[in-house]
Amino acid sequence: MNGKKTKWSLNRLNLKDKYRLGIYNDTTYEQVFYFRLKGREVLVVLVISIFLLVGLNTFFIAFTPIREFIPGYPDKETRKVMQNNVLKIDSLENELAEWAFYWDNSMRVISGGNTQIVQNPPDTLVSNTPFVDIRSKQDSIFRDRIEKEERGNFEDNFSVQKSRDISEFHLMTPLKGKITSRFNAGENHLGIDIVSSPNDVVVATLDGTVIMSEWTLETGYVILIQHNDNVVSVYKHNAKLLKKQGSKVKAGDAIAIMGNSGELTYGPHLHFELWFKGIPVNPEQFIMF
Questions:
Q1: Domain-embedded: residue 73
Q2: Are 175 and 281 members of one domain?
Q3: Which domain holds residue 25?
């Protein structure tokens, strides 16, 4: 070869020439198979081969378990754990948001302000960043199917009840006695004051859950009960509390002993408030005292 190395390139490929690609027996050197191609046909075969190779690689990676062997790609179990973690985090965010609303409402009731009790607490913590939904229709269908399978259709086990008005409830009298100060929103007196015999028992006006049971400087021993349909009852200036926060109570259950605790009191009495959907209402309109 005259001591020179031959370099092949596409520039030397004559599109008009014919080329033969063959297979030979390595022992006998007998030609087993061959086919002829022109220069342009060689280029077409190369391009088609490249596209087929890329297409096959894409297919196997996208639609077969081979993709799980790619470093960094999660396997089936890992993806299942990730989905479960997302659902658990979402549930925890809902619980934290709901408790935040209850706590804020309790503080506002104690201070005599308006509450922010809502009929349907937010599903997730609100973000100030605007959300742009760029998901395709197929992606949305897939996400809905996965979420339905992971949640196990637990929504079907619960019945949705229509919200009732407070006038439809049978409210029990929290304390039998004489009303010495009536409801007057204009003077920021958002409840009624009831005077009775010393050490009389204060009872729950409805079934519910105690969301606060503790001492405050201005109103002494206070107990708040959350009832269905966003009804909250408040009992202030007690001498002793008989229920703890988180306790479930029935209408008529003893929850406190009437007293004279706190700075804003003029003598032994019960200050009773009734709130409906974040608005204080006059208890005398719904309870016989």
A1: no
A2: yes
A3: 12-68
Any idea what the CATH number is for the domain that residue 271 is in? 2.70.70.10
Q: How many domains does the chain have?
A: 2
Q: Could you tell me the pTM of the whole model? A: 0.50
Whole-angstrom distance, CA of residue 183 vs CA of residue 6: 106
- Does residue 22 form part of some domain? yes
Assess if residue 149 is contained within a domain: no
* Sequence-ordered strand ranges (E) for 25-101: 31-38
Cα 237 to Cα 96: distance, rounded to the nearest angstrom: 30
Residue 246 lies in a domain: yes
Which two structure tokens, joined as six digits, stand for 117? 């009790």
Average pLDDT over residues 30-34: 76
- Between 1-15, 125-139, 224-238, the lowest mean confidence (pLDDT) is in 125-139
**HSE of 206, CA atoms in CB hemisphere, 13 A:** 26
Q: In whole angstroms, give the CA distance from residue 150 to residue 129.
A: 28
Nearest to 185 by CA among 288, 282, 285, 284: 282
> 52-90 burial string, b = 16+ CB within 10 Å, else e?
eeeeeeeeeeeeeeeeeeeeeeeeeeeeeeeeeeeeeee
Q: Can you tell me the distance from the alpha carbon of 111 to that of 222, in angstroms, rounded to the nearest whole number?
A: 12
Over its C-alpha atoms, the chain yields an Rg (Å, rounded) of: 39
Q: What is the pLDDT of residues 167-202, one digit of tens each?
A: 788 899 999 999 999 999 889 999 999 999 888 999
Which of 68, 93, 110 is where one domain is finished?
68
